[in-house]
Write a structure and sequence with these properties.
Order of helices and strands of chain A: HHHHHHHHH
Radius of gyration of chain A: 19 Å
Distance between the termini of chain A: 63 Å
CATH class of the largest domain in chain A: Mainly Alpha
Oligomer: homodimer
Helix content of chain A: over 70%
Largest interface: A-B, 35 and 36 residues
Largest sheet of chain A: none
CATH topology of the largest domain in chain A: Tetracycline Repressor, domain 2
DNA sequence: TCATTGTGAGTGAACGTTCACATTAGGCAG
DNA sequence: CTGCCTAATGTGAACGTTCACTCACAATGA
């Protein structure tokens, strides 16, 4: 029998590229097949449907990234070190695979519905981290949900700015600036370099 | 002749609601007509195409909001006051018309292509504000584009968190917190309450 | 009266998906 | 080693559905 794994990888790459460039709904199965260099029917040897492809592409990468963040948090002591490591990892991920990063950002709005609630989730990992920091008295801000949103915004908007050409890649050159800005944002009454 | 303006408003409302709830591409002209209580053909008495409806809905509201922000900035003296007024206005807009706010967020990725470059743009208004602050030495951070992204993130992610139910509305209750967080994020070496 | 507004069945194109058939390659008998 | 066998993989024309959009006609009201 032939090995279909190479074909599946070609589908992955074509799908990520086209989904990010044109949007999921705007990308047809014909588009995908042409970009991957296969026939339309071949896609259905590997995925039950187009939706299944999107959901699988999202869920597997989303959960894997959440796992990486969780592992990372365990290797650091103290909230500030964990935060810095998390920002660094997110930015490194963006720079290493911007297309995948943007795909996850793009479809998280719609794809999250098809992902099981108990699956690992980068946002909930971050939320747990902030909650821990609040409990341990390591940050002044007490609303963990607000703190999570702040950190998320300080990371994702610079990434978005790169997409629009308002900021120049790589994102990693802002790692220290953003980690420090997160820290200050979370500590309303403390000196910035506490 | 009959007055079509009421019909046009019904189309606006139906379109905003459905576009936000299901997405633009996932909303058909049949969906729009049914929600607005009109026939499909009627929509084409008011818009040349579905794309035209989206573009008009986006461009008019996007530019109007940018103008409001510009006016607001002129009424304040000093960067910090301007920043606080801007955050307050953005959050007020979100609370007064969350559907319109989310629509502008949702389609800004794709709709910006059809909007003339010289049109007023909320992001460029913010960028000019930050640039002015840098020039006047009112903030420590020197990269205006990075500062713009930071402020944008600190405003938009809390708004997004409300959509997902991670944060409770209204957004306005965070106005002071976020304005202060923006200020601290932009001032790496300064005391937080300078 | 007539320009404007409203109607909805109809149109061709594009969509996701299917299916009968072709191709491939590892296992296995001779 | 050779030559089938078979399951996996690849193919693309065809299918039914849905889509955005059109048009001949009706209704409205200044």
């Amino acid at each position: 029998m032939r090995d279909g794994r190479a074909t599946k990888l070609r589908i992955h790459q074509a799908a990520l590229t086209l989904f990010v460039a044109k949007g999921v709904t705007e990308t047809s199965v014909r588009d995908l097949a042409q970009a991957a260099g296969i026939a339309e029917g071949t896609l259905y040897r590997h995925y039950a449907s187009k939706d299944d492809l999107v959901a699988d592409l999202f869920a597997s990468n989303y959960a894997a990234f959440a796992d990486r963040l969780t592992t990372l948090g365990r290797q650091q002591a103290g909230f500030r070190a964990r935060l810095a490591a998390l920002v660094a990892e997110v930015f490194r991920f963006h720079d290493n695979n911007p297309t995948l990063f943007r795909f996850l950002l793009l479809v998280s709005h719609q794809a999250l519905a098809r992902v099981p609630d108990d699956a690992a989730n980068p946002v909930s990992v971050l939320h747990s981290l902030v909650e821990q920091g609040v409990q341990d008295g390591e940050i002044t801000l007490t609303d963990a949900a607000l703190g999570t949103a702040m950190i998320l915004g300080l990371m994702l908007q610079p990434a978005t700015a790169i997409v629009y050409g308002r900021l120049e890649a790589p994102l990693s050159r802002f790692t220290d600036d953003i980690a420090a800005a997160c820290w200050r944002a979370l500590n309303p009454t403390e000196a910035p370099h506490g």
